[in-house]
Design a protein that fits this description.
Membrane protein YcsG; Amino acid/polyamine transporter I; NRAMP_fam; transmembrane helix; membrane; mainly alpha; 17 helices; transmembrane; 0% strand
């Protein structure tokens, strides 16, 4: 019975992480890069998957062994650092949640012709409903798994109908015409950046999967999460590649919707609506849950009324979208900050991985530390570059 429960929890954490990553931005990002890089985008996906797994294993293992959430680990290293990290995560998660709510609104618009605002309200209602049930976290796990599988099935169907050049994709994945480092970093930031890095790790901790003895389960769940997100990314890439390779032009205003429509006609366009709604709602849930998990250890009342804080997070995000739309400057700043969150949080985790007061006798693998340091350095450089680049847009 315990083994069955653990598998349910491990899959729940994996799908929570994966579906948190697969939001409206993920769909657009994948399509746009496929359009610009063609089959060579396969190499970018492969490189990002390897980096993503390195990031997730570092973070989830240290959280499990220390039996503490990321903000508490940070505070043990340096008083106040945990609060700083929590503020970064919550601000980033909050800003992107506005975009996620908006993305779901657009998905409902595609499906039923309703206004994006009405779609956003329906989305909030569904997400809030999950946190009103008695066993909310189990409901969240099941919902993420169902929506994740639904997205995979629909995207696989569209990929098949678009008839992509599979041989070319396979060759260019290993021998690309060009290597786009910015695309690799963008994909890493979009898959394991910000709050997404910790979604599954915190979920496992809440479910009692912790301690050094649980590391095999933690490894399985972390790799499974990246695998699910990667499957969705790969088949969306193939769907877009099939369309682009035929010389068809994507609609710049909504590239992913254009891929679905060009590949499978009006049915494909409606399928895009379902995928968009699924991706956005699960990202809303993942963002709200993980953001609140970063502040609940600071006060007992937050932990006691965790679900109500999550509901409040969703309500405020939705209210902002419905009343003033997507605040462009806030989203630009959040995007730039997101690039800096990963090196700060991963750097903190890597230092903690070698502090006996935090992880006890556990010995963190050297290869994971080296791998993590590489990601920290590259993401810090790119995050700083992006932030400096975006400052004129913020204050201009």
């Amino acid at each position: 019975m315990k083994q069955k429960r653990n598998w349910s929890v491990l899959l729940g954490a994996a799908f929570l992480m994966a579906t948190s990553a697969v939001g409206p931005g993920f769909l657009t990002q994948t399509t746009v890069f496929t359009q610009s890089l063609g089959a060579s985008f396969g190499f970018v996906i492969l490189a990002s998957i390897i980096l993503d797994i390195g990031v997730q294993l570092n973070v989830w293992r240290v959280i499990a062994v220390s039996e503490k959430r990321a903000q508490d680990i940070a505070n043990m290293l340096m008083p106040g650092l945990g609060l700083f990290v929590a503020v970064l995560i919550v601000l980033g998660g909050f800003a992107f949640n506005i975009g996620n709510v908006g993305g779901a609104g657009l998905g409902f618009n595609v499906l039923f012709g309703s206004s994006p605002e009405l779609g956003a309200i329906i989305t909030a209602g569904i997400a809030i409903g999950i946190f009103l049930v008695r066993e909310a976290k189990k409901a969240m796990d099941r919902f993420a798994q169902f929506m994740g599988m639904l997205m995979i099935l629909l995207i696989v169907y569209v990929a098949i109908t678009s008839s992509p050049p599979l041989a070319e994709a396979a060759i260019k994945t290993l021998l690309p015409d060009q290597i786009d480092l910015i695309a690799i970093i963008t994909l890493v930031g979009g898959t394991v950046g910000g709050y997404i890095t910790f979604a599954g790790g915190h979920r496992l901790l809440d479910a009692g999967v912790k301690g050094e003895s649980a590391l095999p389960e933690v490894n399985t769940s972390a790799v499974s999460g990246i695998t699910v997100a990667s499957i969705i990314r790969i088949f969306l890439f193939l769907a877009a590649l099939g369309v682009v390779s035929k010389g068809l032009v994507l609609d710049e205003s909504n590239p992913p919707a254009s891929v679905f429509q060009l590949a499978a006609g009006n049915v494909g366009y409606k399928l895009f609506g379902i995928v968009m709604v699924s991706a956005a709602i699960t990202s809303v849930i993942g963002s709200a849950y993980t953001s609140v998990s970063f502040i609940k250890s600071f006060h007992r009342s937050i932990e006691r009324y965790e679900n109500w804080f999550i509901i409040g997070f969703i309500l405020v995000s939705t209210a902002i979208f419905v009343t003033i739309g997507k605040p462009v400057h806030l989203l630009i700043l959040a995007g730039a900050l997101n690039g800096l969150i990963l090196p700060i949080t991963l750097g903190t985790i890597l230092i903690a991985a070698h502090k006996t007061k935090i992880i006890g006798r556990y010995k963190h693998p050297l290869w994971l530390t080296v791998f993590g340091l590489l990601v920290v350095l590259v993401m810090a450089w790119m995050g700083g570059y992006t932030l400096v680049k975006q400052l004129p847009a913020l204050f201009g």
